[in-house]
Write a structure and sequence with these properties.
It is a single chain. The protein is an alpha/beta fold. The chain has one domain: Ribonuclease Z/Hydroxyacylglutathione hydrolase-like (Metallo-beta-lactamase, Chain A), CATH 3.60.15. 38% of the residues lie in helices and 20% in strands. It is built from ten helices and 13 strands. It has helices at residues 52-65, 82-85, 88-95, 103-113, 119-129, 134-149, 221-233, 251-273, 279-286, 294-313, and strands spanning 17-23, 30-38, 41-45, 72-76, 99-102, 158-161, 167-169, 172-178, 187-191, 196-200, 239-242, 317-321, 327-331. The strands form three sheets. It has a six-stranded mixed beta sheet. The protein has a five-stranded mixed beta sheet with strand order 7-8-9-10-11, with no helix packed on it. Strands 12-13 form a two-stranded antiparallel ribbon.
């Protein structure tokens, strides 16, 4: 039974795996976490955003599935975006369990979410240099600061996961697969024996994963994302458990849909650049900003910049730096 585009029947996917739908205070509304039997205890995959409704949802899940928090053995994260990372420290405080994630995502979390972070200023300044109005820059800064508060307490006991090094959870053996793009060091977890993939935000059903350039992101995130789709296409996947939306049973078809989406988005942004435009101009032309919250506008701007960067590497457009320190884009004349 589908309730609407983002609320759906809770899915107990296989023996010993329970999907936990955690609320979010912005339009995405739900993030999926997974409770997995792990011998005499439990492993959690992804944590949710730390605010009272999220904590209440975890407590309700623990009651439903008979989970003693003291028996949580590990908290595994696909990546360190706040809706996946935010309650990791809170869950650690309940259980004493280590938090496991890639080293790159741990570094991102330290830079982005710790109390002394200035990442909000870096992002707002970056967006401002690409045409975002000052009042919206101020709102972006406030939004990021408020999100940071919902990642505290940050976890203090970390272990690091590496692509290719097996991760055993109960009777299942998962291989972490590097899937950068949505985040710089995103991991998915593949169980070949069951053709099962826990895919975080690398692949989603109802929406497309955000691929953004934030001023701190490494390199060319859209190129990384498309390469990650190619890497995932080599896996035999019957069921993928995503970070948002219902489980994916048409995995390879969904990969192709995502490729087509980005090809269409690149064409639309190339047209919007025209003879010259700022990234914010292009964002305004492609996305219905008047219908979006400031949270969504922030993601639309980052996604615009990622697509423009990709177009530039293909020499379809080029970046123009102005004496003011601001930037625009134009059709490539080189």
């Amino acid at each position: 039974m589908v309730l609407d585009d983002l609320l759906y029947e809770r899915h107990d996917t296989m023996e010993g795996i329970h999907q936990v739908q955690l609320p979010l205070p912005f339009p995405l509304r739900i993030v999926n976490a997974y409770l997995m039997r792990d011998d005499d205890g439990w492993t959690i995959i992804d944590a949710g955003l730390n605010y009272p409704p999220g904590q209440a949802a975890w407590r309700e899940a623990f009651n439903r599935y008979g989970v003693d928090p003291a028996l949580i053995r590990r908290i595994v994260l696909t990546h360190a975006h706040p809706d996946h990372y935010g309650m990791a420290g809170w869950l650690q405080s309940l259980s004493g369990a280590p938090v496991a994630l890639s080293a790159g995502e741990a570094a991102f979390a330290r830079a982005q979410w710790h109390s002394d972070s200035r990442a909000h200023e870096i992002t707002a300044t970056f967006f401002g240099a690409h045409g975002m109005p000052c009042d919206l820059m101020a709102t972006v800064t406030e939004d990021i600061v408020n999100l940071r508060l919902m990642t505290h307490p940050t976890p203090v006991v970390l272990t690091y996961l590496s692509a290719g090094e097996p991760l055993t959870i109960g009777k299942r053996v998962f291989v972490p697969v590097a899937t950068p793009g949505h985040s710089d060091d995103h991991l998915v977890f593949y169980c070949a024996e069951e053709r099962l993939l826990i895919c975080g935000d690398a692949v989603l059903t109802k929406i497309t994963p955000n691929v953004g350039l934030w001023g701190r992101t490494h390199g060319n995130p859209l190129a990384q994302f498309l390469a990650s789709l190619d890497r995932l296409a080599k896996l035999d996947v019957a069921l993928a458990l995503p970070g948002h939306g219902p489980p994916i049973t048409r995995f390879h078809e969904r990969l192709e849909e995502l490729r087509i989406h980005h090809a269409e988005r690149l064409a639309a942004m190339e047209r919007a650049v025209g003879a010259g435009a700022t990234a914010y101009d292009v964002c305004t032309a492609v996305f219905p900003l008047q219908e979006l919250t400031s949270h969504q506008i922030r993601f639309a701007m980052a996604e615009t910049l990622a697509h423009l960067e990709y177009l530039a590497t293909q020499r379809r457009i080029e970046l123009v730096e102005h004496d003011s320190g601001r930037y625009s884009w134009r059709r490539c004349i080189c």
